[in-house]
Design brief:
Number of helices: 13
Radius of gyration: 20 Å
Number of domains: 2
CATH superfamily of the largest domain: Type I PLP-dependent aspartate aminotransferase-like (Major domain)
Number of strands: 14
CATH topology of the largest domain: Aspartate Aminotransferase, domain 2
Bound molecules: pyridoxal-5'-phosphate
Strand content: 15-25%
Helix content: 40-55%
Strand order of the largest sheet: 2-10-9-8-5-3-4
């Protein structure tokens, strides 16, 4: 097979379609022009559909980590606490970020591969009050999807003043997530995961309660100050220079996603997850994540039984034109991940399995 590039089978950055890459090559515009305000306004309307919200969606030139920091700084008062649900590389890092910003952090740690349940959260809330609870929708390191809807319901009921902050970096546009219906105050994401854009942009949907909270916090920092970003956003603008080329790409990608249909997109991800489970288990591999909470966008394959050399596997697959994941952090090797997110189609996933079978000598 001949490919003109390495096709990314990585859980971020993901493969980006040529048409989307090409959308970036339009002529530059100044970001104080009416053409830019049009672009911003169009994108905002489509982003609200994508988040299933009527709340404001802020966008910025940064990776998702930027809005992690923004969330911690704008939503947690210095004399109050935040509850971080941790159990994987990303949820743990967000807790570190709150700590690095001087916030008082409590955590509910679950074992890697396990999910946070509403029961665990209900119990932990007794140690409050908490200004905010921070959780990761789809833990990309372990392939676990947390039951965000049910957790949010418990928080709303038991601690109605606690802001619900969700990282949906690898869930957004790949698996069900409804901001308004689920009552989420803040949901952040970035461009290079299931959104299937080049890296470099972050997005956050925020409720009025988030803005009210931010007003009570003196030191919100500068670049990720929600009040300043929201003030510019009201004029379809940004406080500092935005990534215009990437916004062209995002504008087109949102059109294409709405044409596919968001729910159809979720269904395509579920179908690819099922294909991946079927392939992995029929080849003797385990599935790392707890059965009830396996992700629709990425499968963490448990390699302990079969024990392939993930470096050799990646080398072999590179020869077939695929850049493969080798696992993340402390579970790299004993596990590796097969992402099935973004604009990936089942037919390409089949080619990946054919390649892996050839490597296994099947
Ligand atoms: C990739 C990822 C992040 C980090 O996002 P960046 O855009 O790389 O800063 C955060 N959370 C989750 C769940 C991720 O998968």
């Amino acid at each position: 097979m001949s490919r003109d590039h390495q096709y990314l089978i990585l859980p971020g950055p993901v493969e980006v379609r040529k048409e989307i890459l090409e959308a970036q090559s339009q002529w530059m515009i100044g970001h104080r022009s009416s053409a830019f305000a049009d672009l911003y306004g169009r994108m905002h309307e489509k982003l609200q559909k994508a988040f299933f919200t009527e709340n404001k969606v802020l966008m910025i030139g940064a990776s998702g980590t930027g809005f992690w920091e923004g969330a911690s700084r704008n939503c947690i008062r210095d004399d109050q606490k935040v509850l971080h649900l941790t159990g994987g590389a990303f949820s743990e890092r967000w807790a570190d970020i709150s700590q690095a910003n001087g916030k008082q952090v409590d955590t509910v740690q679950v074992e890697w591969g396990q999910a946070h349940t509403p029961e665990l959260v209900a119990e932990a809330l007794d140690n409050g009050p908490y200004d905010a609870i921070a959780l990761v929708h789809n833990e990309t390191s372990t392939g676990v999807t947390n039951p965000v809807k049910d957790i949010a319901a418990v928080v709303r009921e038991q601690a109605p003043d606690t802001l619900i902050m969700v990282d949906s970096v690898s869930g957004f546009l790949g698996t069900e997530m409804r901001v308004d219906e689920w009552g989420l105050d803040l949901v952040l994401t970035s461009s290079q995961k299931a959104f299937a854009l080049p890296p470099g942009m972050a997005f956050v949907a925020i409720s009025e309660r988030v803005l009210e909270r931010a007003k009570q916090i003196e030191h919100r920092g500068y670049y990720f100050d929600f009040l300043s970003i929201a003030k510019s956003a009201a004029k379809n603008n940004t406080p500092s220079t935005p990534p215009v080329s990437l916004m062209y790409a995002a504008d087109k990608q949102l059109d294409d996603i709405l044409t596919e249909g968001i729910e159809n997109r979720w269904a395509r991800h579920i179908a690819m997850k099922e294909m991946t489970h079927e392939w992995a288990t029929s080849r003797g591999f385990g599935l790392y994540a707890n059965e009830a909470y396996r992700s629709n966008t990425v499968t963490t394959v448990d390699n302990r039984e079969v024990g392939i050399d993930v470096n050799e596997m990646a080398k072999f697959m590179a020869g077939r034109g695929f850049a493969m994941d080798k696992g993340y952090g402390k579970i790299k090797g004993p596990t590796f991940r097969i992402p099935h997110m973004g604009d990936l189609q089942p037919a390409v996933l089949e080619e990946v399995f054919d390649g892996l079978d050839a490597f296994l000598g099947k």
